[in-house]
Structures are given as structure tokens and as C-alpha cells.
Specification:
With 698 residues, the protein is of the alpha/beta class.
Length: 698
């Protein structure tokens, strides 16, 4: 039997044991047992050694020393000891000072993007512009003004800083510094606190008025620490005590320089790649990292509900852990990776805090230089991280977060593009990954098209690549079964059908007959464009409009609007004005389990009702998309390219869009328009004859 206290303790040990295993930094401890004083002292000696050799900042070093002293005084049998050791391991293993050097060779970056991705012209251009700004910022000079009335101190500082590659000017006192600041821009002023004529504090106050963006670092003697604090309050970036520790000087200046450069850069918002799954968002993120020579991290935010998952738990919790951001930074070992926050539109919000607000802080260059993970309890500088977000539907993002992002749309691919990507990238990659590189395997164009058309129905390439992988897997098995036969393998349509089985998607549109009360619509979802059918029927009843198919409020209102319009214009459609008397109308949108909403189905519902009431069949191969008003007008909709691609995939012959979408249609590439007639219309009268077949069915 356990008593509660024992059980609580053993649970804690299990939790912290797992945590320590996952950290795996120093020697791994599989089982946490009672430690003898000798074991404790070995562990603490190890930690102390690790502290001495770790590249950490002064503040972290002081914190680590304090924690070590606390542990030395502690009984190793109590839970706090284990928590403290885990904490120290984590603290010391973070890359406080580790950075990779950026490779800012534009030609190389362009080549990498081009070699690894087909098409995506606008995306690549935007990324190259981003890198160009970064390159320019990197090569611009960093001007420092050193103000000190002691000549030796002045020249020493000048010498050290010039050696680091900075442009350095000097001033003999505060007044001289101020005069120089009026003539030239300086990124940083390093000033002594005690000077004749004008001291450091006075210089700080005046300089902040002339050049508010210039950072000021105060150099103070030990006796003047309180003045240093005063200087920080008045806006100094930092203070350095005398005698100056050269390593601290270098790292302070480097940090200020980096911060300023990052701020310059990130005044342009964080990039957010938005588009259906499988359109290359993640893989282009990896290419950016490669082009910059940085490491790459990706975390998915889908389903994230708890703020603590990002920001960590306070160490007072049993089994508390750092957040995912710091855990990943520690894993990758540098503090300037390309960090992809995937599916940022899928984060949740609940009583345990709001993860979106943590993201706001992480993405804000003014704040992320001092990101505070609750577990770590000391700020970590994330300002050198290049964050990239991805989303399927940016409209779902909270407005303040969207405001920080620059959305780069990733469109769905046409069949032609998919074929080209398969030839150039997907097929060679899958052959390689399935050990077929040295076998002569040739995929015919017809086979590739068959996989696209008969086995996938998507805007991106995920399932397509998966099907190619399935084919390669089966080919690998065939190769092994007939090992002596090394003749070339030609993959044609027939072989695809043999390997993948009967086709998975039929072309419902092209193959279905025209029906009364059934129209074809186009909607835009997070997976890209999709085809929907709207069915309407009438039966005896008492003027009820029944709406089914998991419909949201907006789509329900669209249906009511459409019905009211038709009732008020019955004669224009040669209908009896009292047609609704003694009857009910039911509108249903199949795939009943999938929730649907949005205004763009309005015109499709209206035509389904007109078809039903006039008994004229509606053409299946003409699709519609448009918001419908009570006066019979069509209002513009979004996602035109995705909708046209969905129509192409389904075999639709013509699409009717609102007139106001004309400009979006003109923007479409020719291969997107291929095979579908695009019609624009301002009101329902001008399109009824395009959709309805004139022979009435009784
Ligand atoms: P997403 O992150 O948008 O869901 P991925 O980056 O995972 O999509 O892409 C799915 C697959 O398709 C990956 O194997 C990727 O390399 C490939 N891919 C997508 N777009 C392209 C492209 N334009 N050129 C080459 N390969 C691509």
C-alpha cells in the first residue's frame, strides 16, 4: 500500500526522470534513486565544470552559481534537488551565444530556390527580396562614437572596436560627442560616466533628444553603480563597469548591433506562407534555411491549447517542463535558426491562457529579445531567429497576429504543373528512397497523369507523392521477386492500375446527367477549391424552408434570401406567385457531416430553387460561385484560382462568376483557364439560360 505522500514523491521522480532523459545533456540518469553524498558531490562537480566551460552570458553564469550553491546545501533525497539539477542542465545547455554565420550570397540563394522548387515565381521573388534587404543591412557600416576624457581609455577602446571591424570615432568629452552627433549618425555611443564639461548622464539626455535611435552604453566605476542604474532608467542600453572586461565589451556591442540590424529587417513583417496542404510551404522554408546557411526547426501548432506548451511551466509545478520554443532552440544548438511555426491558424484558445498572445510576443522584434520561458525564468534572446509562419486559412487568425504577418499565398497546382513537379522532383526522389535509383525505371506521362486524375483529388501534392511512393514500393517488391531480370521497367497506365487498384475518383460531373433542382457550386476550403452540389426538392406542407447538410448561419441566410427573391419575382420566371402555398421546400448540401458556411453558395442555391420550381433541369457541368443579394445581384467571391482548379479537376465545362471578379479572372495563367469556359455575370437573369436546360420535366 502506498500512502499519498510516498505516491506523490514516486510520481514526481518518474516525471523528472523522463524529463532528464529527454534532455540527455550530461550523463543520462535512467532511474532516479536516493543519492549518497558522494554521488551528489560528483554530480555537482560535473555541473560546475559544465558551467565553467559553457558559453553563457554573465547573468546566466551568476544565476547558475546561485543555483549550484543552493543545491550544495540541499539534501539530495528531496524532490527540489532533482528539479534543481534538471533545471541547471537545461540552463547550461542552451545556445546563449551560439550563432551560425549567415551566408548572404544572393546568386547561391536564387540557385537553391530554383533547383529545389518548380514554379512558385511570386514566392521565390518575395523571399529573394527579403534576403536582399538582409544582405544590404549586413554590409552597411556600424558607426560607434567613443566619448572619454582620458586619452588612454579612449584610444584603447578605439583600438579594440576597430579590430572588431566597426567604424569608430572619438570625442574628448560630452559636449564634443554631442557636436559630433549633430553632424553624423551613430548607431552606438560608448561614454564614460564621469567627464568634465558634460558628464555621461547629461550626454545621454541630450543625445536621446537629437538621435533617439542611437543606443548608449555607459561606462562606470565601481563607486558609481547607482548612477549606472539611473542611466538605465533614462534610456541607456547597458552599462559596463570599470575595469572593462573586453569579452563583455565585445559581446555587448555585438548584441546591440545584431538587435539593431534585426529591427531594421523585421520592420518588414514576418512572412506567413498560406495555402492548401502539400503546396510546398514547409519545403520552401527548408530551402530558405539552406540558402542562408542556417539550421531549420519546424513545430506544428495544430491543436495547441495551452499557453504553457509554448512558454513552459513554472518550476514550482511537479514535472514542470520548458516550453516547445526553448526546447527546440536547445535541441538545435544555435540561437539563429530558421524557425517555422506550422499551422498557426489551428491554435486554440481556452481557460489555460491564450497561445496566440505568446506568439505575438515571440514574433514582435521589440519584445522577443527578452523572451521569458516560465521554466527558464531568465530572458532568452530570440531576436536573431528568423520566424516563418504557415497557415491554411489566414482569415482564421486573430487580427493582432495577422497584423504582424505578411501573407505570401501558395496557390494550388494545375495538372500540368503537377506533372512537371513529378518528373523533376517527386518521381526521382521516390525512386531514390525506394532503392530503385540504379534500376532503369521510366514513368510515362500517361501514367503520371493517371495518378493525378484517377487517384488524387487535391490542390497540393501530398497524396500524389504518397501514391508515387506506393507505386515505387510495389515496384521494389517486383524487382526482388524477379531478381535475374534486369530489363527496364516502363510504368504505363495499365501498370498503374495493376499496382494501385481500381481508380479512386470518378468524374462525377462529366459523367452525371442534368437534373431538376440540382446545381453545381464551387467553394473554397482549407484544402483548396472544392465542388459541391446543391439539391432542392418540394413537397406538401405549410411554407417551411428546411435546410440540411451541417449548414452555418450565413449559408442559411443565403437560402432564405434566394427563396424570398424568387417569391417576390415569381412572374419574371413564369411561376405562380403563390407557389409556396401549401408546400415545403427542402434544400440539402451533401457531405452532410462536413460543416459548411460562407456567402458564396448564394447564387447556386438560387438556381437550384429556380430549376426546381420551373422544372427545368440544371446543367451539371456548369458550376457557379457568387454571393446573391435580395435584389438578384451577384457579389464577388474569393479563391478564384483554387475554384477554377477544382472545377478543372472535376471535369466542369464552364464556370459562372460575379462580374466584379473579372479582374481576378484576367490574372489567371493560361494553363489554369485551360479547358474551362469562364463567364462573368452581374445578375441572375443573365445566367439562368446558361444553367437551365429549356425543356421542362414534369
Ligand atoms: P505544405 O508544407 O505546403 O503542406 P510540403 O512542403 O510538405 O507542403 O510539400 C509536399 C511535397 O511536395 C514535398 O515533398 C515538397 O517537396 C513537394 N513540393 C511542393 N511544391 C513543390 C514545388 N513547387 N516544387 C517541387 N516540389 C514541391
Amino acid at each position: 500500500m502506498f500512502d499519498t505522500a510516498t505516491l506523490g514523491l514516486s510520481m514526481l521522480r518518474i516525471a523528472t526522470g523522463i524529463e532528464r532523459q529527454s534532455m540527455g545533456f550530461f550523463k543520462k540518469i535512467e532511474r532516479i534513486e536516493e543519492k549518497s553524498p558522494e554521488e551528489q558531490s560528483i554530480e555537482l562537480v560535473d555541473l560546475r565544470r559544465a558551467k565553467e566551460s559553457a558559453r553563457i552570458t554573465k547573468a546566466v553564469s551568476e544565476l547558475a552559481s546561485k543555483e549550484l550553491e543552493r543545491l550544495e546545501r540541499m539534501d539530495p533525497g528531496i524532490p527540489e534537488y532533482t528539479i534543481g539539477v534538471s533545471y541547471l542542465e537545461f540552463l547550461l545547455s542552451l545556445p546563449w551565444q551560439n550563432l551560425t554565420d549567415d551566408s548572404l550570397d544572393m546568386a547561391r540563394a536564387e540557385k537553391i530556390l530554383e533547383l529545389q522548387h518548380y514554379g512558385l515565381k511570386h514566392v521565390k521573388e518575395r523571399i529573394l527580396e527579403y534576403l536582399a534587404v538582409k544582405t544590404l543591412c549586413n554590409f552597411s557600416d556600424f558607426n560607434i562614437l567613443v566619448a572619454d576624457d582620458e586619452e588612454i581609455a579612449r584610444t584603447n577602446l578605439e583600438y579594440v572596436l576597430r579590430k572588431e571591424g566597426y567604424q569608430v570615432s572619438t570625442a574628448v568629452n560630452g559636449q564634443d560627442a554631442l557636436d559630433k552627433l549633430k553632424q553624423k549618425d551613430f548607431e552606438l555611443i560608448l561614454t564614460d560616466l564621469k567627464m568634465e564639461k558634460m558628464d555621461g548622464i547629461q550626454l545621454l539626455e541630450s543625445a536621446k533628444q537629437i538621435a533617439p535611435n542611437t543606443e548608449i552604453v555607459m561606462i562606470t566605476g565601481y563607486a558609481t553603480v547607482s548612477s549606472a542604474v539611473d542611466a538605465l532608467k533614462k534610456g541607456a542600453a547597458h552599462y559596463l563597469p570599470k575595469p572593462i572586461d573586453l569579452e563583455e565589451l565585445r559581446s555587448t556591442v555585438r548584441q546591440i548591433r545584431e538587435k539593431k540590424r534585426y529591427l531594421q529587417l523585421t520592420r518588414s513583417p514576418i512572412l506567413c506562407f498560406s495555402g492548401p496542404p502539400g503546396t510546398g510551404k514547409t519545403s520552401i522554408g527548408k530551402s530558405i534555411a539552406e540558402a542562408l546557411g542556417r539550421k531549420f526547426i519546424r513545430i506544428s501548432l495544430a491543436g495547441l491549447r495551452d499557453e504553457a506548451e509554448l512558454r513552459g511551466h513554472r518550476r514550482t509545478y511537479v514535472g514542470s517542463m520548458p516550453g516547445r520554443i526553448m526546447t527546440e532552440i536547445r535541441r538545435i544548438g544555435v540561437r539563429n535558426p530558421v524557425f517555422m511555426l506550422d499551422e498557426i491558424d489551428k491554435i486554440g484558445q481556452d481557460f489555460r491562457g491564450d497561445p496566440a498572445s505568446v506568439l505575438l510576443e515571440v514574433l514582435d522584434p521589440e519584445q522577443n529579445g527578452r523572451f521569458l520561458d516560465h521554466y527558464l525564468d531568465v530572458p532568452f534572446d530570440l531576436s536573431s531567429v528568423m520566424f516563418i509562419a504557415t497557415a491554411n486559412v489566414v482569415e482564421r487568425l486573430p487580427a493582432p497576429l495577422l497584423d504582424r504577418l505578411e501573407v505570401v499565398p501558395f496557390p494550388g497546382y494545375t495538372e500540368k504543373e503537377k506533372r512537371a513537379i513529378a518528373r523533376q522532383f517527386l518521381v526521382p526522389r521516390q525512386l531514390r528512397e525506394h532503392g530503385l535509383k540504379n534500376r532503369s525505371v521510366e514513368f510515362l506521362d500517361g501514367a503520371i497523369s493517371k495518378i493525378i486524375v484517377d487517384y488524387t483529388l487535391e490542390a497540393g501534392l501530398r497524396n500524389f507523392e504518397r501514391e508515387i511512393a506506393t507505386v515505387c514500393r510495389k515496384l521494389a517488391r517486383l524487382c526482388l521477386q524477379s531478381e535475374n531480370d534486369r530489363s527496364p521497367i516502363v510504368v504505363d497506365e495499365k501498370l498503374i492500375e495493376n499496382l494501385l487498384g481500381p481508380r479512386r475518383f470518378t468524374h462525377e460531373i462529366a459523367e452525371a446527367g442534368h437534373r431538376v433542382g440540382v446545381t453545381t457550386g464551387l467553394v473554397w476550403t482549407e484544402f483548396g477549391g472544392e465542388i459541391i452540389f446543391i439539391e432542392a426538392t418540394r413537397m406538401k406542407g405549410n411554407q417551411q424552408l428546411i435546410l440540411t447538410g451541417s449548414l452555418g448561419e450565413i449559408i442559411r441566410e443565403s437560402a432564405q434570401t434566394a427563396l424570398s427573391y424568387i417569391r417576390s419575382h415569381a412572374q419574371d420566371f413564369s411561376l405562380d406567385p403563390d407557389f409556396f402555398d401549401g408546400s415545403d421546400i427542402h434544400v440539402h448540401i451533401p457531405s452532410g457531416a462536413v460543416p459548411k458556411d460562407g456567402p458564396s453558395a448564394g447564387v447556386t442555391i438560387a438556381l437550384a430553387l429556380i430549376s426546381l420550381l420551373t422544372r427545368k433541369p440544371a446543367r451539371r457541368d456548369v458550376a457557379l460561385s457568387g454571393e446573391f443579394t435580395l435584389s438578384g445581384r451577384l457579389l464577388p467571391v474569393s479563391g478564384i484560382r483554387e475554384k477554377v482548379l477544382a472545377a478543372q479537376r472535376a471535369g466542369v465545362k464552364a464556370i459562372i462568376f460575379p462580374e466584379a471578379n473579372k479582374i481576378d479572372i484576367e490574372d489567371l495563367d493560361t494553363d489554369v483557364r485551360e479547358g474551362v469556359e469562364l463567364i462573368v455575370a452581374g445578375d441572375i437573369f443573365s445566367i439562368a439560360h446558361r444553367v437551365l436546360i429549356q425543356d421542362t420535366v414534369t
